[in-house]
Fold each of these.
Amino acid sequence: MSVAHTAQHATTVGPAVLVPLVAGWCYLAAVLRQREPDRPGWSHWRTAAFAAGCALLAVALLLPADGFAAHMWQHLLLGMLAPLGLVLGAPGTLLLRTVDRRVGRAALRALRHPVARTLAHPVTGLLLTAGGLWLLYLTPLYRATLASPVLHDLVNLHFLLSGLLFTWSIAGPEPYRHRASVPVRLVVLGAAVVAHASLAQLLYAGLLVDVPAPPQALRAGAAVMYYGGDAAEILLALALLASWRPQPRRAPAPAARQTLKGDPCST
């Protein structure tokens, strides 16, 4: 990474750090409103998870990207670890509890739109996150980010937003009628593991990638992607299993039970 790019990027970090600070302040203000007598309160675990996500996001923005391994750590924090904490904080549910009911109903109607349902599918999140990584490192896009701080920031924004979308589609705590089934989410998460591991191996071997870095730096960055990505995806799988609530079997109606009892084929 060039020295010029590092210096220019350092000047753009300041305003970006305000994002997790403002998000954390707004979340805390909404949590404090839940302490009013006519409100049901809010989980301390959700608050802690969101605070951890904001802290990881701030660390990612402040991390000096002065090498390929540091760059990879930044993407790991932005695209996987920070989104996990932010999503587990259930900010959507908290927002609906805070805003006016008419605004909440309008937001819920928007979530039922076909476009929103497509965006909320885990395959869409997979294409945006893993596909974005393959596009970044197997095309001249990464070289372009070294010469343009604005493009660098836009790529980071893409990984943050796509990471939030993918994490929510896999383990979002909010109930959503059109959410993919747990088996589908597990299969997509497995595909994400394969995609990240395959790209890390290509980076480690220096094959097909367009990254202007010495082999040692490539291997260090590939190790961060391989092992750090696996750890983040294990945490995401645990979050999915922890939030999974199997639907209980419905007992047959009394008339149906009577029919079955009198049917000789049922014995």
Amino acid sequence: MPNRVVMATAASALLLTMTAAPATASPLPVPYWGHASQVITVIADSPTATTATFTAWQRTGGLWDHWQAVRGPITANVGSDGIGQASETTSKTPAGTWTLTEAFGIQANDGTRLPYRQVGTADWWVSDVKSPLYNTYYHCVPGTCPFNEGAGEDLGEAGPVYNHAVVIDYNRNPVVPGAGSAFFLHISSGKPTAGCVSIPAEDLKAVMAWLDPAQQPVIDIAVR
């Protein structure tokens, strides 16, 4: 009888393990264990690569391996110093998984459900490491801002690359001075960026229309 109990317990444990384990490997190129139902992966072949493979994924079931590619793969431009530990003194795209909670653009919102701000030349992203406003949005007329404007980015002056953009929530909560600021998913100019991720305009338009704040979207940036 004791042996039968042990065998039954072992069989139950095996059944539980088989039930919990995924039947197939996740299609995502990097492991993701979070709650987001929308994940964008940006995967480079090396830490110094200035291009990466961009794919937008939709969770299609409750299990971790149930994902479907809805846009991509697309060739994205990343930082001119590659992907890794970002800072204010490098042009690296920050490695890690970051939420996508808001968007902006020089042009009007053309379909995203993310909170959207249309920007002009009085709209800034603060990169002054000595300012308490570091790595935040701020509205002020040029010449009147309460931070070093030379260390800020005038969003309205950036040109077509910022016609539409999504904020990558790196170093935003908490904000660490000097750890890097103003990281966005924006329209590609065909060249490496200062640390942002950029893709062609039509692809960005489609991705922004797909992003849904109710699905807690994230971007996962990594080296293969």
Amino acid sequence: MSAHEGSKSNPLQITEDEAAVYDRQIRLWGLEAQQRMRNATILVIRLRGVATETIKNIVLAGIGKLVMVDSEDVSEEDLGAGFFYRDEDVGKKRVDAAKARVESLNPLVTVETISTTSILGGEDLDGLVQNVDLVCVTDWDRDNLVRINETCRRFGKLFYAGGTFGLLGYIFCDLLKHDFISPDRSAPKDAPRSVKATAQYSPLHMALRHRWTNMTKRQTKELNPAILLTIIAIWEYQSIHQGELPDDEKNAPELETIASSILSAADVNSQVITRIPQELIQTMSTTAAHEFSPVCAVVGGMLAQDILKALAAREAPIANFFAFDGNTGGGTVCKMNM
């Protein structure tokens, strides 16, 4: 058994050397939270820009084991936002190119790679999910996200999805029934400063049926529904086109039709928005398939931070859909069907 393979009934204790490496975090989170991270195995599926940023942060934070799955080769496009890759890696498998650079970030973390996505179907997927604590899927189509989310639910595993479409980014999480310690800022001086809290999450297919019916004009406006609904519209476009993203302005009319239909079904307050802005649709029709490094950095950084929160069970994680607008630099969290 390797140093990282503690069983759930007999979790590994942090050594003095590890305590020295993670000293600052232990002061921040507490030893128990760091211990949870130390014993966690995380599965990351697909290694594009968001994943590289997320992996960097969770590996530096001190998880126990990382399993990376990706069957694709490094392309020239990957060199922009995927900072694990170099010019000489083009044509190599992404996981093979990334492995040594991930390991060099933190030698205390065990890194495993799987360079075939055939393992992401049927019983192979079941076996893979059963052996990890948390699954994080990045930059994949909605139908595959829903399928993997359902597998995670069957085995009681935490699920995260994240990605970018040009200047837009998103994070979704399904943490099942999640217990955590939340700071109690309203407590009087002598009272305990934190309280136990529980949040009940919903799977992605349920979240996507969210209706905005009972929200006030102000609440709706604060959540910037155009961005979130455009992300959902791009997913629908992908589903219709066998995983392909819009990549030409001639795709704009179809994307607009899909977005309008989603807006109508979501029953969004018409005083706030009656149609998805034409300019947003136009931009997405030409940029959704491309990665922008700063957007990947923001979304990947937030995704990593939230994964660590969920593992540490300190503070409330995202509940449950975060949408980022790189045009303004603003992000909003919408509680969808929770």
Amino acid sequence: MHIGLIGLGKMGNNMRTRLREAGVEVTGFDRNPDVTDVPTVEALVQALPAPRTVWVMVPAGQITDSVIEELNGHLEAGDLVIDGGNSRFTEDFKHAALLAEKGIDYIDAGVSGGVWGVENGYGLMVGGSAEQVERVMPVFDALRPEGPREEGFVHVGEVGAGHYAKMVHNGIEYAMMQAYAEGYELLEKRSDLIKNVPGTFEAWQRGTVVRSWLLELLVRALKEDPTLAKIEGYVEDSGEGRWTIEEAIDNAVPVPTIAASIFARFVSRQDDSPAMKAVAALRNQFGGHAVKSND
């Protein structure tokens, strides 16, 4: 199978590597000449056999809009566009409608795995027609983790469902990170009693009910910097957490834990707290997100 991939940043470049290692032919485009395979989006489209499949992996918002509009000008009926970025699910309806005017199909794919996905595989949440999802299943199988398909891939529903599921996933992620971070701060505050904070988290990795990959990443961060002294407790939010809360309000679903985790990030921009140092360290570990250094 041969697909196009637009956007070769941290995740896109790693996805290209994983796909190629699985035998999927990939032609990639990026504005960075050091990583791109072709000079333009038009050249990418011309390099693909019909019916074409193009995976878009660029930042959500105006950049995604512009890429899809450009693809709409080059693709033909029967081609397929997959948006694997973190677009808001409501944008999927707009993009699908635009492409449908020319008979171009559309899939939205929520992708989780961060910078570690190239080794471990990516969790995939997909929205679109069953026919189109099945058409590109070799791509999804190459990207997902090894093991049973249902443990790393889900066809959630029609267009918009994939990004909706990813939005809720990220809201949960916000809350989980905040819980670990608050526990870290409490342990760190009682240094008179707790003499080994990093070791405490490390011991929780086996046999405890709070074990998880996020916990493993926090342990990794503490091994690199046991007191997180090099990290400023300033944490950005990428949008999905806010969207989750807005959806919860619209549907009268109480999400106090997720909401509190968002507000904690706002507090981090005013106060350099140990808990927010831990959240910043976690985001850096799983997603390669930049941190503010105290150096």
